[in-house]
Each structure stands twice: as C-alpha cells, then as structure tokens.
Amino acid sequence: MRVSLIIWLVAAMLLQQQQLPVTAAATAVEQEQIEPKIVGGTSISITQAPYQVSVRLTSRDRKSYGSGHICGGVVISQRLVATAAHCVYNNDKKQYRRAGEFMLVMGNAYLLRKNENTLQYYVQELIVHPNYNQVSLVNDIALMFFNGYIPWEAPTVKALNLNDRSLPAGTNCAVTGWGVVFSGATISSPTLQLGRVPLVSYEQCFIGYGNLPRSQVCAGFMKGGVDACQGDSGGPLQCENQLVGIVSYGEGCAKRNYPGVYTNVSFYHDWIVQMNSTLNYTIYKNSAKSFGASSVWSLLLSVVALLVLANCFYAQVVNNMATKLFVLLAALALMLATATTAADSRRRDLDSTQIRPRFNLDPGRIINGTYATQEATRHQVSLRRKLNDGYFFGTGHFCGGSLIRPNAVLTAAHCFMDQYFNNGTFIDKDTVIVVMGTLDRFEQANTLTFEVEQLIMQLEVFNKTTYDKDIALLILNGSVPMNHPTIRPIALNALTVPAETVCQVTGWGVTEEGYVSDVLMTVDVPMISNEECINDSDLGALIRPGMVCAGYMEQGERDACNGDSGGPLVCHSQLAGIVSWGIGCAQPNLPGVYTEVSYYYDWILEQLGEEHHHSGDGDGDDDGSGSGDGDDDGSGSGDGDDDDGVAMVSVTSLSILVPALLALSRL
After folding, report:
1. Which residues pair with 260 in a beta bridge?
2. Nearest CA among 197, 176, 167 for reference residue 258
3. Residue 447 pLDDT more than 90?
C-alpha cells in the first residue's frame, strides 16, 4: 500500500514536470502582443526561401508537431540562425527564455508535417543583443547557435548572406513566413508564404511611425496590401539575395501609411560577425530541456525500482510516514536534477572538416555560372504556378523548359510531379503557365505567357527512384509570332554528342550563394560519355538508357541545381539535354544527369506530327551562327542574321556515329 501510494505520487510529479512548460509557454505566447505573417502573399516551395527557419517552443511542439511555432528565423551560417530578440523574451515572466526551450525546424515549407528534407535542431546557445529594449523594440535581434551543423548536401537548406550596405528606397524585396494570412486572424498559415515589398524611405516611414533609428528599416506599400504579420516575427527580409532585415513590428498588418518595420541587418553586421567569432563550431552540446517519451518511461521505471528498494530500507529505520515520504521525494528531486544536468552537459566533438563557420562559404547552387545573354537563350522558358504568378509576376517559377516549336515546349516530367502527395502522380496542367522572352523573371516587358493545352508524357506515374523517362512535351494554347525580338525556338539534337564537348546549361535555379536567381544564369559543362559516367563516377548503375551526364568529374565546380529542372543543355546551338537530376550540386564524381534528347528524338517528332527527315529548321543568331536539326549526312544549316551563317551539327559524321553505336550496344 505504501509503495503504490509513493508510485502514484511519483507519476503525478513526472506528469506535472512534463505539463508545466506547456502551460507556461502557451500563456506567454498568448500574452505576447508583438509577433509580427505575410498578408497579401503567396504560397511558395522551400527552394524559393531555403534559408527560412521555424522557431518553436520544444514543449508545445512535442505535444503537437507545428503547434510550437512562435517566430521565424533565418539561416546565416552552418550552425547559426538570426531572429528577433522579442521572440526569445517571455513577457509574462519579464525575462529571456532559456536556450533549451527552443527548437529550430528548417528545410520544409509545410509547418505541420515533416518530409525527408526536414532538419531539426535544439538551440545550444542564445545570444541576445545586450541593448535590446522591450518597449521600443530597438536592437531587436538575437542569434541562435544550434547543436549540430547543416550538411553540405542538404537540398533545401542554405544560408543567406548578410547585407552590409544601405540600399535605396524602392529596392524590391521578399518577406517570408508562416504567420497569419490576413489581419485579425489567429491561425498561422500551414504553408510558407512570400510577399514582395519595396524598401521605404525614412521620410515616408516617418508618416506613420515618426523618427526611426538607423538600426531599423521600413518595407512595404504605403497604400497597404502586403506586409508581415503575427507569426512572422524574426523572419527574413531578403533584398538582392541578401539578408537586409529581420521582421520586428508594425501597426496592424498591411495598413495604409504603416509599412512593416524591420531590424536593419547592415547596422548590426559587425556585431553579428563578432559574436560568431566567439562560438566554437566543433563542440556539440545538447541543451534541450524536454524529455522524449522513451526517456520519460525509462526514468519512471528506474525511479520506481529505486523507490521499492528505498522503501524496504527505510521501513526498518524510519517509522514516521511523513518523514519517510519526505526523504523519498527529496531523493527523487535529486535524481531529476541529476538527469537534467546530465542532459544539459552531454557534449561531443563534431567533424570540423564538415563545418564552415564563415558566412560567405556556405554551400549553395546554377553553380559558379555567369549571367546569360538574350541572344543565346531565346529558347528558354519559365514554368510557373499560375496562382502564385497571378499575385506577383515572377514568383511562380518552379522549373525551366525549352521552346522547340512556336507552340511546343520540352521540359522534364518530374516538374509536374505533385509535391504535396509526393507519390509520383502529376498536378493538373491547368495550374501551370509558360512564360518566355525575358532574362529577369520579374521583368514583364517583351514576355509572352501561354497556358498548357496538352501535356504529353511517356508515363502515368513518375518513378522517383529511377527518374526514368523524365521528359514532357507541352503543347501551348498559342504560338510565338515570327521574328519576335526575344523569343525563338531551338533546334533538336538528333545524334549522340561526343564526350568532352562543351555545352551550356541555363536556368533561374539556386546559385552558389544559396538563393534562387532573379536573372537567368548560364554555365559551361563538358559532356561525359555514358561509359565513363557509369564506370568512373559515383552514379554508376543509376544511369539508365535515355540519360546523359555532363559536368566536371574530379573537382565538381559547376552544375545545374534546384530550380533549373526541365531547363536546356545546349550543345552546338542545339538542344541536347533536359536538366533532370543529380546528387547534390557541383560535387566531385557526381556530375549532373540530363534527359538525352537524341534518345527521344523520334518520339518527340511523332508527338508533334512531323516526319523523321532530320531537315534543319533552326534560326541563326546575330553573330551569323545558326542551328538546325541535322540532315542525314550529319550537317544542318540555319538562317543566320549575317550572310555567312552556317551551323554544323558535329565535327564529323564518324565522331558522332561511333559513340552512338557504343551507346546502342549498352541497351
């Protein structure tokens, strides 16, 4: 009887130990008034803001995944996240929260569910600006040093570079977060949102807020409409692919004459760098406060066993029940304190070769490319989500493609894979538009926009394991006019391209700085024979018929990446490949893999209703060079703008036919 009573008391204490943080956290969050989400924004994929972080209270999130979200954050190095100081201040207790109360979730656009790219860390050390003012929100910045490091190969998490200069008013920026989607709402958005806002001058910001210190900056529309709001606090304001601001506060959400107010990162640049230099990137310390379910039961069982032994002992020594209970509970408290101390002090060394504590060397992705020219990329198109692009031109981009006929585009099948269900099924073609004619995806001049009238593929369900048959033909609901100044179809390559041929890849994908490029990028990559790619690279048997490799085997260096999918690989002014897949980006012995256009050449012509006669029909460029689908003798001509425009499909017929026969022998 005495043992059962003690066990009941112990269980009650343990339950109280687990529930108290939830109640306290919930009360604190409800009372915090300034938790400035994106009003007037659109849903985006995590690849459009791979630096975005969800800052959560561990105790609440363990109860229901996603419910712990209180603020946003931004990845600024391999182990460091920046957020707002007011996010870590407990207004109810008038003190800062402990580092161990927080967890950081990144790599996923969905707030309430995980996927294979989700990364989760506990906060090891919390650094709040020493001069933060809880009333005026001046110096509203804090750094979170977490207990692990972001792997090089993480496909959806990249650091955002720090801005260190003043930017002019009107600079186009993006604010992201999971906050409420309209003013007065109480429920956070389940998907990551993006709002496009311009920087606002201090003179204009004065209208609503009076004089602001230079440690703060305003962004938004003076007429209202787009803004950050509750739940977005601590999140990033990204301008020109740099972290310019941290969401701090605002008067309401998206109200006229009240743009959002952000912590000015350039003002704190030196402080951030200085604080970062004091951190030991090679030491891991688990400072998480909460216990997991398995840990709780293990502790409970061990405590019960100890109490049984202790009860038997004290029954012979202490006759007073109250004294006996006091001694046992004191022993229990000591055990819990010891367990918590042990959890807080667990340390181990991290592999320092995998860590880059500096801000400007974090991995990212086209990799090491240069800005593309209009003349060389008139065939490039942007596949966009119609809904997103309808809110703000350019934000809907998710894949590339190539115009191969005035009314036909070639792209990758996986671009149409439904990312929500992630089971290989495809999205409705009516949700996609095709935009072409511009290098800057946010610039609408000279562009044409089409809907997809017909989506043609070789499969009904996409194989995410093999990426086999990764090709899609789009028939548009209109045709590009002849002699359009910035748009022109590209000719198809009909035969295998020899190894070491230098080709060009273009796209708006993630660059080495870790952000999606606003301007079309290009990179030169050499072709790799299938034999070398299978036998000498780390891809091996993953290379299947209809795939071709390109890139730098030993050093990596240059490659296509996220956001470039479906885009063109151009060799000798002809479309030779479609960006398909890769392991990481620009990694040694892991070249990029492309869908081989020549392998599907007959199928493409069949779907277009054309005869297979290899006649050239490409158009020439201003420098006199032209492209065309080659004649049967291996050469083709295009109509160059200069009189001597001629395009050769290959060096010699023999140099093409031999690799082609070798490729066929492996089928």
Report:
1. 219
2. 197
3. yes
pLDDT at 328 over 90: no
Question: Which of 45, 61, 140, 517 does the annotation list as catalytic?
Answer: 140
Spatial separation of the C-alpha atoms in residues 545 and 541, rounded to whole Å: 10
Burial of 341 (0-12, 13-18, 19+ CB in 10 A): exposed
CB 574 within 8 A of CB 501: no
Helix (H, G, I), strand (E, B) or coil at 512: coil
Least trusted range by pLDDT, from 220-229, 424-433, 503-512: 220-229
- Count Cβ atoms below 10 Å from residue 80 Cβ, excluding itself: 25
Report the CATH architecture of 370-665.
Beta Barrel (2.40)
Ranges of each domain in the chain? 2-16+287-345, 32-284, 370-665
Compare 583 and 543 and report the one with higher pLDDT.
543
Mean pLDDT of the chain: 76
Taking 80 as the threshold, does the pLDDT of residue 620 lie above it? no
For residue 266, indicate whether it is catalytic: no
State yes or no: pLDDT of 472 exceeds 50. yes
Sorting pLDDT into bands at 50, 70 and 90, what band is 254?
low
Q: Is the pLDDT of residue 55 over 70?
A: yes
Q: Could you identify the residue written with the tokens 């791979």?
A: 50
From CA 24, how far away is CA 361, in angstroms rounded?
40
Q: What is the pLDDT of residues 147-165, one digit of tens each?
A: 988 887 788 999 998 998 9
What is the percent of the chain with per-residue pLDDT over 90, rounded to a whole number? Answer: 43
Tell me the angle at which helices 321-345 and 293-317 cross, rounded to the nearest 10 degrees.
Answer: 150
d(CA 340, CA 257): 50
Q: Record the tokens describing residue 52, joined without a space.
A: 């975005």
Length of the chain: 667
Strands (E), 529-666: 547-550, 568-571, 574-581, 592-596
Q: Which of 43, 45, 233, 402 is catalytic?
A: 233
Q: Is the confidence at residue 660, as pLDDT, over 70?
A: no
- Residue carrying the six token digits 């604010």: 175
- Residues 6+ positions from 255 with CB-CB distance below 8 Å: 183, 224, 227
Paired tokens of 530: 């299938």
Higher pLDDT, 491 or 636: 491
* Residue 86 annotated among the catalytic residues of the structure: yes
- Is 370-665 in the same CATH topology as 32-284? yes
DSSP annotation string for 191-218:
B-EEEEEEEE-HHHHHHHH----TTEEE
Exposed / middle / buried, residue 46 (Cβ in 10 Å: 0-12, 13-18, 19+): buried
Instruction: Give, in words, the CATH class of 32-284.
Output: mainly beta
**Which residues, at least 6 apart from 98, have a Cβ–Cβ distance to it below 8 Å?**
126, 287, 289
Active site residue 379: no
* Gap between the Cα atoms of 467 and 542, Å rounded: 9
Residue 187 is predicted with a pLDDT of 65
In this structure, are residues 310 and 325 in contact, taking their beta carbons and an 8 Å threshold? no
Strands 472-476 and 502-507: unpaired
**Least confident residue range of 161-175, 259-273, 352-366:** 352-366
For 419, the 3-state DSSP assignment is coil
Residue 292 has pLDDT above 80, yes or no: no
Considering the candidates 43, 45, 77, 86, report the single residue annotated as catalytic.
Answer: 86
Query: Which whole-number Å values give the CA distances from 554 to 114, 558, 589, 637, in the listed order?
Result: 35, 11, 6, 36
Residues 349-371 have a mean pLDDT of 44
Determine the distance from the C-alpha atom of residue 125 to the mean position of all C-alpha atoms in its chain, rounded to a whole number: 25
